[in-house]
Please model this.
Amino acid sequence: MKKTRVRFAPSPTGPLHLGGLRTALYNYLLAQKYKGDFILRIEDTDQKRFVPGAEEYILKSLNWCGLTPDESPYHGGKYGPYRQSERRSIYKPYFRHLVKEGHAYYAFDTAEMLDKKRKVFESQGNTFSYNAQTRLQMDNSLSLTAQEVTSRLEKGDQYVIRFKTPADNQILEMYDEIRGEIKINTATLDDKVLVKSDGMPTYHLANIVDDHLMEITHVIRGEEWLPSLPLHWLLYEAMGWKMPYFAHLPLILKPEGGGKLSKRDGDRLGFPIFPLQWKDPQSGVLNRGYREVGYFPEAFINMLALLGWNPGGEQEIFSLKELIDLFSLDRVGKSGARFSKEKAQWFNQQYLQKKPLTELIRLFQQELKKYKVNNSTQRYNRKVVESVRDRASFVHDLWEKAYYFFMPPLQYDPKAFKKAWHKESFYILKNLTADLSKWEDFNACILKKHLRDFAATQDLSFGKLIQSLRLALVGDLQGNDIFFIMEMLGQKETIKRIEQLIQRAPQ
Ligand code: GLU
Model:
Protein backbone atom coordinates (compact mmCIF):
# COMPACT_ATOMS: atom_id res chain seq x y z
CA MET A 1 0.00 0.00 0.00
CA LYS A 2 1.13 3.54 -0.73
CA LYS A 3 2.42 5.49 2.22
CA THR A 4 -0.10 8.02 3.51
CA ARG A 5 1.11 11.52 2.76
CA VAL A 6 -0.94 14.55 3.71
CA ARG A 7 -0.22 18.21 3.59
CA PHE A 8 -1.29 21.37 5.31
CA ALA A 9 -1.03 24.08 2.68
CA PRO A 10 -1.73 27.53 4.14
CA SER A 11 -1.16 30.78 2.33
CA PRO A 12 0.86 33.25 4.38
CA THR A 13 -1.79 35.94 4.11
CA GLY A 14 -2.28 36.39 7.85
CA PRO A 15 -2.34 34.50 11.13
CA LEU A 16 -3.81 31.01 11.36
CA HIS A 17 -7.38 30.96 12.47
CA LEU A 18 -8.91 28.19 14.59
CA GLY A 19 -10.30 26.59 11.44
CA GLY A 20 -6.89 26.49 9.76
CA LEU A 21 -5.34 24.90 12.77
CA ARG A 22 -8.06 22.28 12.89
CA THR A 23 -7.29 21.44 9.26
CA ALA A 24 -3.64 21.00 10.21
CA LEU A 25 -4.65 18.85 13.17
CA TYR A 26 -6.84 16.48 11.15
CA ASN A 27 -4.08 16.10 8.58
CA TYR A 28 -1.58 15.40 11.32
CA LEU A 29 -3.84 12.85 13.02
CA LEU A 30 -4.39 10.95 9.80
CA ALA A 31 -0.67 10.92 8.98
CA GLN A 32 0.22 9.70 12.45
CA LYS A 33 -2.49 7.07 12.43
CA TYR A 34 -1.18 5.48 9.26
CA LYS A 35 2.48 6.14 10.06
CA GLY A 36 2.60 8.48 7.12
CA ASP A 37 4.05 11.92 6.49
CA PHE A 38 2.65 15.29 7.44
CA ILE A 39 3.87 18.04 5.16
CA LEU A 40 3.72 21.79 5.57
CA ARG A 41 3.65 23.52 2.21
CA ILE A 42 3.52 27.28 1.98
CA GLU A 43 1.22 28.40 -0.83
CA ASP A 44 2.54 31.86 -1.55
CA THR A 45 1.82 32.24 -5.25
CA ASP A 46 -0.25 35.33 -4.57
CA GLN A 47 2.55 37.68 -3.61
CA LYS A 48 0.16 40.64 -3.42
CA ARG A 49 -1.50 39.09 -0.40
CA PHE A 50 1.74 38.19 1.36
CA VAL A 51 1.81 39.32 4.99
CA PRO A 52 5.19 39.59 6.71
CA GLY A 53 5.52 37.29 9.70
CA ALA A 54 2.58 35.08 8.72
CA GLU A 55 4.70 32.10 7.69
CA GLU A 56 6.71 32.16 10.92
CA TYR A 57 3.46 32.50 12.83
CA ILE A 58 2.06 29.38 11.15
CA LEU A 59 5.12 27.39 12.09
CA LYS A 60 5.14 28.64 15.68
CA SER A 61 1.47 27.77 16.05
CA LEU A 62 2.02 24.23 14.80
CA ASN A 63 4.95 23.86 17.17
CA TRP A 64 2.96 25.10 20.13
CA CYS A 65 0.32 22.47 19.41
CA GLY A 66 2.93 19.76 18.95
CA LEU A 67 2.00 19.21 15.31
CA THR A 68 5.52 19.01 13.98
CA PRO A 69 5.71 18.54 10.21
CA ASP A 70 7.85 15.76 8.78
CA GLU A 71 8.65 17.93 5.78
CA SER A 72 8.47 21.71 5.41
CA PRO A 73 10.59 24.72 4.41
CA TYR A 74 12.12 24.39 7.88
CA HIS A 75 12.34 20.62 8.22
CA GLY A 76 13.49 19.81 4.69
CA GLY A 77 12.50 16.65 2.86
CA LYS A 78 13.08 15.10 -0.51
CA TYR A 79 10.05 16.67 -2.20
CA GLY A 80 11.14 20.28 -1.70
CA PRO A 81 11.22 23.17 -2.04
CA TYR A 82 8.15 23.50 0.17
CA ARG A 83 7.40 27.12 -0.66
CA GLN A 84 5.55 27.58 -3.92
CA SER A 85 7.36 30.82 -4.72
CA GLU A 86 10.54 28.73 -4.88
CA ARG A 87 8.95 26.17 -7.19
CA ARG A 88 8.16 28.55 -10.04
CA SER A 89 10.23 26.74 -12.66
CA ILE A 90 8.67 23.39 -11.73
CA TYR A 91 5.21 24.37 -12.99
CA LYS A 92 6.19 25.40 -16.50
CA PRO A 93 6.28 21.99 -18.21
CA TYR A 94 2.88 21.18 -16.73
CA PHE A 95 1.02 24.17 -18.06
CA ARG A 96 2.80 23.85 -21.39
CA HIS A 97 1.60 20.26 -21.49
CA LEU A 98 -1.97 21.32 -20.77
CA VAL A 99 -1.87 23.86 -23.60
CA LYS A 100 -0.30 21.37 -25.98
CA GLU A 101 -2.92 18.75 -25.23
CA GLY A 102 -5.76 21.24 -25.71
CA HIS A 103 -6.78 21.40 -22.03
CA ALA A 104 -5.73 25.00 -21.62
CA TYR A 105 -5.32 28.06 -23.81
CA TYR A 106 -3.67 31.47 -23.99
CA ALA A 107 -5.99 34.37 -23.33
CA PHE A 108 -4.84 37.86 -24.36
CA ASP A 109 -7.86 39.82 -23.17
CA THR A 110 -6.85 43.01 -21.40
CA ALA A 111 -8.49 44.14 -18.18
CA GLU A 112 -10.33 46.89 -20.13
CA MET A 113 -11.69 44.40 -22.65
CA LEU A 114 -12.93 42.13 -19.92
CA ASP A 115 -14.52 45.04 -18.17
CA LYS A 116 -16.25 46.14 -21.32
CA LYS A 117 -17.60 42.66 -21.87
CA ARG A 118 -18.89 42.52 -18.33
CA LYS A 119 -20.70 45.81 -18.81
CA VAL A 120 -22.34 44.60 -22.02
CA PHE A 121 -23.63 41.51 -20.23
CA GLU A 122 -24.82 43.55 -17.29
CA SER A 123 -26.71 45.95 -19.54
CA GLN A 124 -28.63 42.92 -20.81
CA GLY A 125 -29.31 41.72 -17.28
CA ASN A 126 -26.75 38.92 -17.45
CA THR A 127 -23.53 38.12 -15.65
CA PHE A 128 -20.46 37.57 -17.72
CA SER A 129 -18.56 34.36 -17.24
CA TYR A 130 -15.47 33.38 -19.22
CA ASN A 131 -16.60 29.90 -20.17
CA ALA A 132 -17.43 27.45 -22.95
CA GLN A 133 -20.29 29.69 -24.17
CA THR A 134 -18.32 32.92 -24.31
CA ARG A 135 -14.72 31.91 -24.91
CA LEU A 136 -14.96 32.09 -28.71
CA GLN A 137 -16.05 35.74 -28.51
CA MET A 138 -12.87 36.54 -26.61
CA ASP A 139 -9.28 37.22 -27.52
CA ASN A 140 -7.58 33.86 -27.04
CA SER A 141 -5.77 31.03 -28.76
CA LEU A 142 -9.10 29.30 -29.43
CA SER A 143 -10.64 32.24 -31.26
CA LEU A 144 -7.49 33.50 -33.03
CA THR A 145 -5.63 31.72 -35.81
CA ALA A 146 -2.44 29.82 -34.97
CA GLN A 147 -0.46 32.46 -36.84
CA GLU A 148 -2.00 35.32 -34.89
CA VAL A 149 -1.30 33.53 -31.65
CA THR A 150 2.36 32.96 -32.55
CA SER A 151 2.84 36.53 -33.60
CA ARG A 152 1.23 37.88 -30.41
CA LEU A 153 3.35 35.62 -28.28
CA GLU A 154 6.46 36.71 -30.19
CA LYS A 155 5.50 40.37 -29.82
CA GLY A 156 5.44 39.78 -26.08
CA ASP A 157 1.73 40.53 -25.65
CA GLN A 158 0.57 39.86 -22.12
CA TYR A 159 -1.47 36.74 -21.64
CA VAL A 160 -2.87 34.42 -19.02
CA ILE A 161 -3.44 30.70 -19.43
CA ARG A 162 -6.96 29.50 -18.83
CA PHE A 163 -8.31 26.02 -18.30
CA LYS A 164 -10.54 24.80 -21.10
CA THR A 165 -13.53 23.40 -19.26
CA PRO A 166 -15.11 20.49 -21.16
CA ALA A 167 -18.02 22.04 -23.02
CA ASP A 168 -20.32 19.13 -23.46
CA ASN A 169 -22.69 19.52 -20.54
CA GLN A 170 -20.92 16.66 -18.88
CA ILE A 171 -22.04 15.57 -15.41
CA LEU A 172 -18.88 15.42 -13.42
CA GLU A 173 -19.07 12.80 -10.69
CA MET A 174 -16.68 13.37 -7.85
CA TYR A 175 -16.19 11.79 -4.48
CA ASP A 176 -15.49 13.42 -1.16
CA GLU A 177 -14.58 11.29 1.86
CA ILE A 178 -16.89 13.33 4.08
CA ARG A 179 -19.70 14.30 1.73
CA GLY A 180 -19.80 11.20 -0.44
CA GLU A 181 -20.71 11.55 -4.09
CA ILE A 182 -20.84 15.07 -5.52
CA LYS A 183 -22.18 15.78 -9.00
CA ILE A 184 -21.91 18.93 -11.00
CA ASN A 185 -22.70 19.93 -14.55
CA THR A 186 -19.52 21.21 -16.22
CA ALA A 187 -21.63 23.81 -18.03
CA THR A 188 -21.78 25.70 -14.71
CA LEU A 189 -18.01 26.07 -14.56
CA ASP A 190 -15.93 28.91 -15.92
CA ASP A 191 -12.48 28.75 -17.50
CA LYS A 192 -10.30 29.54 -14.53
CA VAL A 193 -6.93 31.21 -14.92
CA LEU A 194 -4.13 28.70 -14.34
CA VAL A 195 -1.18 30.99 -15.02
CA LYS A 196 -1.21 34.72 -14.36
CA SER A 197 0.24 37.35 -16.65
CA ASP A 198 3.43 37.50 -14.55
CA GLY A 199 4.02 33.83 -15.34
CA MET A 200 3.15 32.73 -11.82
CA PRO A 201 0.71 29.84 -11.61
CA THR A 202 -2.49 30.42 -9.68
CA TYR A 203 -3.37 28.46 -6.58
CA HIS A 204 -5.27 25.84 -8.62
CA LEU A 205 -2.44 24.79 -10.87
CA ALA A 206 0.34 25.00 -8.30
CA ASN A 207 -1.79 23.12 -5.82
CA ILE A 208 -2.51 20.10 -7.98
CA VAL A 209 1.00 19.93 -9.44
CA ASP A 210 2.51 20.02 -5.98
CA ASP A 211 0.07 17.50 -4.56
CA HIS A 212 0.96 15.20 -7.43
CA LEU A 213 4.73 15.68 -7.21
CA MET A 214 4.71 15.43 -3.44
CA GLU A 215 2.76 12.18 -3.73
CA ILE A 216 -0.07 13.43 -1.54
CA THR A 217 -2.58 10.67 -0.92
CA HIS A 218 -5.27 12.67 0.94
CA VAL A 219 -6.22 16.29 0.39
CA ILE A 220 -7.87 17.39 3.62
CA ARG A 221 -8.90 21.03 3.65
CA GLY A 222 -11.65 23.43 4.64
CA GLU A 223 -15.09 23.49 3.08
CA GLU A 224 -14.32 26.86 1.49
CA TRP A 225 -12.25 24.94 -1.08
CA LEU A 226 -15.12 22.71 -2.16
CA PRO A 227 -16.04 25.02 -5.08
CA SER A 228 -12.50 24.45 -6.42
CA LEU A 229 -12.91 20.68 -6.40
CA PRO A 230 -14.45 20.34 -9.90
CA LEU A 231 -11.57 22.26 -11.46
CA HIS A 232 -9.01 20.23 -9.54
CA TRP A 233 -10.78 17.04 -10.48
CA LEU A 234 -10.79 18.03 -14.15
CA LEU A 235 -7.13 19.02 -13.97
CA TYR A 236 -6.20 15.62 -12.56
CA GLU A 237 -8.16 14.00 -15.37
CA ALA A 238 -6.52 16.23 -17.96
CA MET A 239 -3.09 15.37 -16.62
CA GLY A 240 -3.96 11.69 -16.47
CA TRP A 241 -2.85 11.53 -12.85
CA LYS A 242 -4.15 9.34 -10.09
CA MET A 243 -6.56 11.31 -7.96
CA PRO A 244 -5.85 11.73 -4.24
CA TYR A 245 -8.71 11.23 -1.76
CA PHE A 246 -10.45 14.52 -1.09
CA ALA A 247 -12.00 15.51 2.23
CA HIS A 248 -13.57 18.92 2.76
CA LEU A 249 -13.99 19.73 6.43
CA PRO A 250 -17.15 21.41 7.73
CA LEU A 251 -16.99 25.02 8.85
CA ILE A 252 -16.50 26.07 12.43
CA LEU A 253 -19.60 28.11 13.14
CA LYS A 254 -20.36 31.10 15.36
CA PRO A 255 -21.48 30.14 18.89
CA GLU A 256 -25.07 31.02 17.99
CA GLY A 257 -24.83 29.14 14.67
CA GLY A 258 -25.55 30.84 11.36
CA GLY A 259 -22.26 31.49 9.63
CA LYS A 260 -18.59 30.97 9.83
CA LEU A 261 -16.79 31.86 13.05
CA SER A 262 -14.89 35.08 12.49
CA LYS A 263 -12.42 37.22 14.33
CA ARG A 264 -15.23 39.67 14.97
CA ASP A 265 -17.13 36.97 16.90
CA GLY A 266 -14.09 36.46 19.08
CA ASP A 267 -13.82 40.19 19.77
CA ARG A 268 -17.54 40.46 20.41
CA LEU A 269 -17.78 37.49 22.76
CA GLY A 270 -14.35 37.66 24.35
CA PHE A 271 -12.42 34.66 23.12
CA PRO A 272 -9.34 34.38 20.91
CA ILE A 273 -9.60 33.25 17.34
CA PHE A 274 -5.88 32.66 16.85
CA PRO A 275 -3.72 30.05 18.58
CA LEU A 276 -0.96 32.52 19.48
CA GLN A 277 -0.91 36.26 19.84
CA TRP A 278 -0.76 38.16 16.59
CA LYS A 279 0.25 41.72 16.02
CA ASP A 280 -1.24 43.04 12.85
CA PRO A 281 1.70 44.52 10.92
CA GLN A 282 -0.47 47.24 9.43
CA SER A 283 -2.66 48.40 12.27
CA GLY A 284 -0.29 47.36 15.05
CA VAL A 285 -3.29 45.88 16.90
CA LEU A 286 -2.30 43.03 19.18
CA ASN A 287 -4.66 40.06 19.40
CA ARG A 288 -4.16 37.60 22.23
CA GLY A 289 -4.13 33.94 21.34
CA TYR A 290 -5.18 30.79 23.16
CA ARG A 291 -1.66 30.46 24.55
CA GLU A 292 -1.69 33.94 26.06
CA VAL A 293 -5.17 33.49 27.50
CA GLY A 294 -3.83 30.51 29.42
CA TYR A 295 -4.87 27.44 27.44
CA PHE A 296 -2.77 24.31 27.64
CA PRO A 297 -1.93 23.19 24.10
CA GLU A 298 -3.20 19.68 24.83
CA ALA A 299 -6.58 21.05 25.98
CA PHE A 300 -6.77 23.31 22.97
CA ILE A 301 -6.02 20.42 20.60
CA ASN A 302 -8.57 18.19 22.31
CA MET A 303 -11.25 20.86 22.00
CA LEU A 304 -10.37 21.50 18.37
CA ALA A 305 -10.39 17.79 17.47
CA LEU A 306 -13.99 17.48 18.62
CA LEU A 307 -15.13 20.53 16.65
CA GLY A 308 -16.34 18.59 13.65
CA TRP A 309 -15.19 15.07 14.46
CA ASN A 310 -17.10 12.74 16.71
CA PRO A 311 -15.54 9.49 17.81
CA GLY A 312 -18.88 8.19 19.13
CA GLY A 313 -19.53 7.48 22.81
CA GLU A 314 -19.49 9.76 25.80
CA GLN A 315 -15.78 10.29 26.25
CA GLU A 316 -14.58 13.81 25.53
CA ILE A 317 -11.10 13.95 26.98
CA PHE A 318 -8.54 12.39 24.67
CA SER A 319 -4.79 12.48 24.74
CA LEU A 320 -3.04 13.14 21.44
CA LYS A 321 -2.16 9.46 21.28
CA GLU A 322 -5.84 8.51 21.69
CA LEU A 323 -6.86 11.03 19.06
CA ILE A 324 -4.38 9.49 16.65
CA ASP A 325 -5.65 5.97 17.31
CA LEU A 326 -9.31 6.91 16.97
CA PHE A 327 -9.27 9.49 14.21
CA SER A 328 -10.99 8.66 10.96
CA LEU A 329 -12.40 10.82 8.20
CA ASP A 330 -15.70 8.93 8.14
CA ARG A 331 -16.53 10.31 11.58
CA VAL A 332 -16.07 13.91 10.49
CA GLY A 333 -19.49 15.56 10.25
CA LYS A 334 -20.90 17.15 7.13
CA SER A 335 -22.51 20.07 8.88
CA GLY A 336 -20.71 22.90 10.62
CA ALA A 337 -19.64 22.64 14.24
CA ARG A 338 -20.55 25.47 16.60
CA PHE A 339 -17.77 26.92 18.63
CA SER A 340 -18.42 27.37 22.34
CA LYS A 341 -16.26 29.51 24.59
CA GLU A 342 -17.62 27.77 27.68
CA LYS A 343 -16.82 24.36 26.27
CA ALA A 344 -13.30 25.46 25.41
CA GLN A 345 -12.83 26.63 29.00
CA TRP A 346 -14.26 23.37 30.25
CA PHE A 347 -11.58 21.46 28.35
CA ASN A 348 -8.86 23.53 29.94
CA GLN A 349 -10.38 23.08 33.35
CA GLN A 350 -10.43 19.31 32.86
CA TYR A 351 -6.76 19.30 31.90
CA LEU A 352 -5.85 21.55 34.79
CA GLN A 353 -7.62 19.27 37.25
CA LYS A 354 -5.77 16.27 35.83
CA LYS A 355 -2.31 17.84 36.06
CA PRO A 356 0.01 16.36 38.68
CA LEU A 357 0.23 18.65 41.69
CA THR A 358 3.97 19.16 41.30
CA GLU A 359 3.49 20.37 37.72
CA LEU A 360 0.73 22.72 38.79
CA ILE A 361 2.90 24.13 41.58
CA ARG A 362 5.67 24.72 39.04
CA LEU A 363 3.27 26.61 36.78
CA PHE A 364 1.86 28.53 39.70
CA GLN A 365 5.34 29.59 40.73
CA GLN A 366 5.91 31.02 37.27
CA GLU A 367 2.71 32.97 37.73
CA LEU A 368 3.93 34.21 41.12
CA LYS A 369 7.05 35.57 39.47
CA LYS A 370 4.88 37.77 37.27
CA TYR A 371 3.60 39.39 40.45
CA LYS A 372 7.09 39.60 41.91
CA VAL A 373 6.26 37.15 44.68
CA ASN A 374 9.41 35.23 45.41
CA ASN A 375 9.58 34.74 49.13
CA SER A 376 7.04 31.97 49.65
CA THR A 377 8.18 28.45 50.35
CA GLN A 378 7.41 25.46 48.16
CA ARG A 379 5.40 24.00 51.04
CA TYR A 380 3.32 27.15 51.36
CA ASN A 381 2.67 27.27 47.60
CA ARG A 382 1.67 23.65 47.63
CA LYS A 383 -0.95 24.25 50.31
CA VAL A 384 -2.28 27.26 48.42
CA VAL A 385 -2.55 25.36 45.14
CA GLU A 386 -4.24 22.41 46.83
CA SER A 387 -6.78 24.73 48.37
CA VAL A 388 -7.84 26.52 45.18
CA ARG A 389 -7.18 24.15 42.27
CA ASP A 390 -10.65 22.67 42.08
CA ARG A 391 -12.10 26.11 41.38
CA ALA A 392 -9.64 26.95 38.61
CA SER A 393 -9.83 26.53 34.84
CA PHE A 394 -6.55 28.31 34.08
CA VAL A 395 -3.26 28.77 35.89
CA HIS A 396 -4.01 32.48 36.20
CA ASP A 397 -7.23 31.55 38.00
CA LEU A 398 -5.07 30.06 40.72
CA TRP A 399 -3.54 33.46 41.30
CA GLU A 400 -6.87 35.26 41.06
CA LYS A 401 -8.30 32.93 43.67
CA ALA A 402 -5.26 32.98 45.91
CA TYR A 403 -3.50 36.36 45.64
CA TYR A 404 -4.38 37.23 49.23
CA PHE A 405 -2.14 34.44 50.49
CA PHE A 406 0.75 36.49 49.16
CA MET A 407 -0.17 40.14 49.55
CA PRO A 408 -2.50 42.27 51.67
CA PRO A 409 -5.54 43.73 49.92
CA LEU A 410 -4.59 46.79 47.94
CA GLN A 411 -8.15 47.96 48.07
CA TYR A 412 -11.45 46.79 49.47
CA ASP A 413 -14.23 45.84 47.14
CA PRO A 414 -16.81 48.65 47.61
CA LYS A 415 -19.79 46.30 47.65
CA ALA A 416 -18.11 43.97 50.11
CA PHE A 417 -17.16 46.93 52.23
CA LYS A 418 -20.69 48.22 52.32
CA LYS A 419 -21.93 44.85 53.39
CA ALA A 420 -19.29 43.96 55.94
CA TRP A 421 -18.41 47.28 57.56
CA HIS A 422 -20.75 48.49 60.29
CA LYS A 423 -20.35 51.25 62.74
CA GLU A 424 -19.37 48.72 65.45
CA SER A 425 -16.81 47.06 63.18
CA PHE A 426 -14.11 49.44 64.26
CA TYR A 427 -14.38 48.44 67.95
CA ILE A 428 -14.94 44.80 67.22
CA LEU A 429 -11.81 44.55 65.13
CA LYS A 430 -9.79 46.58 67.60
CA ASN A 431 -10.81 44.19 70.37
CA LEU A 432 -10.13 41.27 68.11
CA THR A 433 -6.54 42.32 67.35
CA ALA A 434 -5.88 42.71 71.06
CA ASP A 435 -7.25 39.22 71.60
CA LEU A 436 -5.53 37.67 68.62
CA SER A 437 -2.11 38.72 69.82
CA LYS A 438 -2.65 36.52 72.86
CA TRP A 439 -3.57 33.39 70.92
CA GLU A 440 -0.55 31.22 70.59
CA ASP A 441 -1.62 28.33 68.46
CA PHE A 442 -2.54 29.73 65.07
CA ASN A 443 -4.18 26.64 63.70
CA ALA A 444 -7.43 26.66 61.71
CA CYS A 445 -9.35 24.40 64.11
CA ILE A 446 -8.31 26.24 67.20
CA LEU A 447 -8.85 29.60 65.57
CA LYS A 448 -12.40 28.65 64.75
CA LYS A 449 -13.09 27.84 68.36
CA HIS A 450 -11.38 31.00 69.59
CA LEU A 451 -13.37 33.16 67.24
CA ARG A 452 -16.63 31.55 68.29
CA ASP A 453 -15.79 32.21 71.91
CA PHE A 454 -14.76 35.74 71.08
CA ALA A 455 -18.06 36.40 69.29
CA ALA A 456 -19.99 34.97 72.25
CA THR A 457 -18.18 37.03 74.86
CA GLN A 458 -18.62 40.19 72.82
CA ASP A 459 -22.22 39.34 72.12
CA LEU A 460 -21.63 39.46 68.39
CA SER A 461 -23.06 37.57 65.46
CA PHE A 462 -20.39 35.05 64.43
CA GLY A 463 -21.32 35.55 60.78
CA LYS A 464 -20.78 39.31 60.96
CA LEU A 465 -17.47 38.85 62.68
CA ILE A 466 -16.27 36.52 59.96
CA GLN A 467 -17.42 38.96 57.27
CA SER A 468 -15.38 41.83 58.72
CA LEU A 469 -12.42 39.53 59.13
CA ARG A 470 -12.69 38.37 55.54
CA LEU A 471 -12.86 41.93 54.35
CA ALA A 472 -9.65 42.67 56.26
CA LEU A 473 -7.71 39.66 55.07
CA VAL A 474 -8.97 39.25 51.50
CA GLY A 475 -10.39 42.66 50.61
CA ASP A 476 -13.53 40.95 49.45
CA LEU A 477 -16.19 38.62 50.77
CA GLN A 478 -14.93 35.70 48.73
CA GLY A 479 -12.08 33.32 49.19
CA ASN A 480 -11.11 30.18 51.03
CA ASP A 481 -12.06 29.04 54.47
CA ILE A 482 -11.23 32.02 56.68
CA PHE A 483 -9.61 29.93 59.43
CA PHE A 484 -7.35 28.32 56.86
CA ILE A 485 -6.43 31.76 55.53
CA MET A 486 -5.55 32.92 59.03
CA GLU A 487 -3.46 29.85 59.65
CA MET A 488 -1.61 30.36 56.39
CA LEU A 489 -1.00 34.08 56.96
CA GLY A 490 0.06 33.57 60.54
CA GLN A 491 -0.57 35.71 63.56
CA LYS A 492 1.56 38.71 62.65
CA GLU A 493 0.22 39.15 59.13
CA THR A 494 -3.38 38.55 60.23
CA ILE A 495 -3.13 41.28 62.83
CA LYS A 496 -1.37 43.60 60.38
CA ARG A 497 -4.15 43.25 57.83
CA ILE A 498 -6.86 43.89 60.40
CA GLU A 499 -5.03 47.00 61.51
CA GLN A 500 -4.72 48.11 57.92
CA LEU A 501 -8.48 47.91 57.50
CA ILE A 502 -9.07 49.78 60.75
CA GLN A 503 -6.76 52.54 59.57
CA ARG A 504 -8.26 52.86 56.14
CA ALA A 505 -11.93 52.56 57.01
CA PRO A 506 -13.82 55.74 57.81
CA GLN A 507 -14.74 55.88 61.50
N1 GLU B 1 -3.60 27.58 0.05
C1 GLU B 1 -4.90 27.13 0.43
C2 GLU B 1 -5.25 27.79 1.76
O1 GLU B 1 -4.76 28.83 2.01
C3 GLU B 1 -4.89 25.64 0.55
C4 GLU B 1 -6.10 24.92 0.11
C5 GLU B 1 -5.79 23.46 -0.03
O2 GLU B 1 -5.45 22.86 1.02
O3 GLU B 1 -5.85 22.96 -1.12
O4 GLU B 1 -5.99 27.31 2.57
About this structure: The chain is about 45% helix and 10% strand. The radius of gyration is 33 Å.
